[in-house]
Amino acid sequence: MKYILKLTLLMFLFVNCQKENRAKSVSIIEGSTNSNLKNKIVYLQYIYKDSLFTKSVKVDSYGKFRMELDSINIPSEAILTTDTTNYVPNVGLKGQFSGKFMFQFGSNSVPVQWGRQIDFRIFIIDQKQLNFTIVDSLYNSDIDNSPLNKELLRFGESLHPIMKKYNINRELNNSIVDDSKIRDSIDNEYSKIWQKRKTVYENYILNNPNSEISLFALKYRSLGVNTDALRLYNTLSDSVKESDFGKFMKYQTTSFSKKLNNKPTLNKVVDNFKLRDLNNVERDLYNIKSKYILIDFWASWCGPCRKENKSIIKYYDDFDKSDFQIVGVSGDDSEEKWRKAVIEDNISWISLWDNEKNINDQYGIVFYPTNFLLDSNYKVIGTNLNADELKDKLNNLLK
Q1: Paired residues of 142 in beta bridges
Q2: Domains, the chain, ranges and CATH?
Q3: How confident is the model over 234-262, as pLDDT tens digits?
Q4: SS3 call for 85
């Protein structure tokens, strides 16, 4: 059954907060519908002060609802949805929110996520009143009075061909479990698709220096962690750079660039560090003796990290500890989640908790998983090896 939902988002700017890069606002959301959304819950998710907030309201039997936000950053990425079920509890909710922008933006139909078709609308809250017209699905809704969101929609449409291939490849990946050759082929195709996607994002930034959507593209090109983020930022116009979002992105790209400068490179001896393990015993990297050591930076909410853990554990105990050891460094905010993940993944190697992120900063870590393979002198001889690459390299080194 088709339905039309009119949603009005009224934004009132009430203060310019000196301590924040972006403006603080009060928002009112009102809506009405004569559709099957009656008596259902509508959710709005958004980021404020680097935390994820979710507001909800029940559509009444007359098809009306009203939602108020105490404060919000302007502009701010947001998602309107009817489903906030946590289908992947191992991934933090903020990570899931960012993942939708990273991996679903630009899909040409209601995307399948976590094995389910979840209807949601990605948009940007700006200072203007936003009027939503929702026909058939939230995903295909129209925001008729927001030039910024219309531009965001056009940008998303330019990604349709790439995202169609991405979604097909992902479905194929989920259906294949044990065939390593097929998985390698899928991974290669992923890399090609992702590179094309990054090229579209970069071209958009270079061709639209006066658009704030270019800041959105910069942020989600690789979640801000690509080494040339600052270069791309510097191509933007002064007016965009001086916008609230522009100032925020300058801080983010500069911070990432500084962190990346700390990252150990091949043939460099890494700095020592000390962290506590599962038994609350302080472990000193330089006191761990082995021919080869892998320092693995990860987190419980990182899906690829957990997948690699389960792949490595299959062969880790085949190596003598004098030949090879792993030092896992968790960046989890929660000690409980770190410990739970170690148990769930049957991790038998040294596991440390970097709760204050000091070692993450020391090693220039901006994404997970990140790893460094060291020789007995703690010199880097390999970086970012997946489970199969690590096994092959060790077998060659230990012949």
Answers
A1: 133
A2: 4-145 (2.60.40), 162-262 (no CATH), 274-397 (3.40.30.10)
A3: 999 999 999 888 888 888 788 777 777 78
A4: coil
Please answer whether residues 357 and 334 qualify as being in contact, where contact means their C-beta atoms are separated by less than 8 angstroms: no
Could you give the CA distance from residue 292 to residue 321 in angstroms, rounded to a whole number?
9
Cβ neighbours around 224 below 10 Å, total = 17
Q: Are strands 350-353 and 324-330 parallel, antiparallel or unpaired?
A: parallel
The CA distance from 269 to 288, in Å, is 15
Measure Cα distances from 386 to 15, 62, 133 in Å: 48, 55, 45
Six token digits for residue 131: 């009027």
Q: Quote the tokens at residue 227.
A: 């080494």
Closest listed residue to residue 93, CA positions, set 48, 138, 54? 54
Residue with tokens 């630009």: 106
Model pLDDT for residues 13-63, shown as the tens digit of each residue? 323 333 344 444 556 666 666 666 778 888 988 877 667 888 888 878 877
How long, in residues, is the chain? 399
CA atoms within 13 A on the CB side of 1: 6
Q: Is 379 exposed, middle or buried (0-12, 13-18, 19+ CB in 10 A)?
A: middle
